[in-house]
Amino acid sequence: MNPIEQCKELVQKIYEQMDASHDFQHIERVLMNAEAILQTESTADAKIVKLAVYLHDVSDAKYAEDKSAQNAILAQLALADAERQHIEDIIESVSFNGGNALEAKTIEAKIVRDADRLDAIGAVGIARTFAYGGAKGRKMYDDAEEARLQMTADEYRTKSTASVTHFYEKLLLLKDLMVTAKGREMAEARHIFMEQFLQQLAAEKNGDA
Questions:
Q1: Is-above-0.85 flag for pTM?
Q2: Burial class (CB within 10 angstroms; exposed 0-12, middle 13-18, buried 19+) of 76
Q3: How many CA atoms, within 13 angstroms, populate the side-chain half-sphere of residue 124?
Q4: Which of 35, 49, 60, 154 is the most buried (most CB within 10 A)?
Q5: How would you class 206 by CB atoms within 10 Å of its CB: exposed for 0-12, middle for 13-18, buried for 19 or more?
Q6: Domain range holding 200?
Q7: Cα separation of 126 and 104, whole Å?
Q8: CDD domains annotated for this entry (predicted)?
């Protein structure tokens, strides 16, 4: 079995235990986004990109206390040490971390980051936001809550803000943070859809629609 198929088989069991915002369907969508961007980035290593996509949420801090699952899977794959390190570096640079993301230094890291962020916006991004909020018992919206545009990674992780607040703290910022040309192109329509959704939601909750 090649490393990509082996990795897919190993991670699927882990993602099946997560809520709908970070399940294996999320990984499949991120992979499709990455493949679309790969078509425009001929110098990128597709194998590294795909492995990083499969692994990027296995040890996500929202679900895991450490990186033991990620490290265990990487250890089972027939990869060179440099490849493993590259994948680990990519995963480290994917997370938004309240605006404190590490720099995506390689084209592979840029592709994986954009692919993951594309799945956080648009119709799917809206659905994922409320799926995660519901799983964590968060309010749908809180008009008294102010969005934080500057915060530490720890503050971002520990405060349970309402789902709509999350749009203003992260999701509406992602379009301008895309780092590949294809990612920026794909983000445009998804961003507009989120703006339209928030306008409609405001109208409905205020009795104006």
A1: yes
A2: exposed
A3: 19
A4: 49
A5: exposed
A6: 3-205
A7: 25
A8: HDc (cd00077)
Cβ-in-10-Å burial (0-12, 13-18, 19+) of 105 comes to exposed
d(CA 62, CA 208): 36
**Contact (Cβ atoms closer than 8 angstroms) between residue 94 and residue 56:** yes
Which residue, among 173, 32, 47, 46, has the nearest Cα to 115 in the 3D structure? Answer: 32
Give the HSE-up count for residue 166: Cα atoms under 13 Å, Cβ half-sphere: 24
Nearest to 35 by CA among 182, 166, 140: 182
- Virtual torsion, Cα 116, 120, 125, 126, nearest 10 deg: 170
User: pLDDT for 89-142, tens place per residue?
Assistant: 999 999 888 678 889 999 999 999 999 999 999 999 999 999 999 999 999 999
Which value, in Å, is the radius of gyration of the alpha carbons in the chain?
A: 17
Length of the chain: 209
Instruction: Report the 10 Å Cβ neighbour count for 7.
Output: 24
Q: How far apart are CA 51 and CA 29, in angstroms?
A: 14
By C-alpha distance, which of 116, 150, 146 is closest to 26? Answer: 116
In 3D space, the residue among 53, 113, 62, 63 whose CA is nearest the CA of residue 87 turns out to be: 53
Number of structural domains found in the chain: 1
- The CATH number for 176's domain is 1.10.3210.50
Nearest to 27 by CA among 43, 13, 44: 13
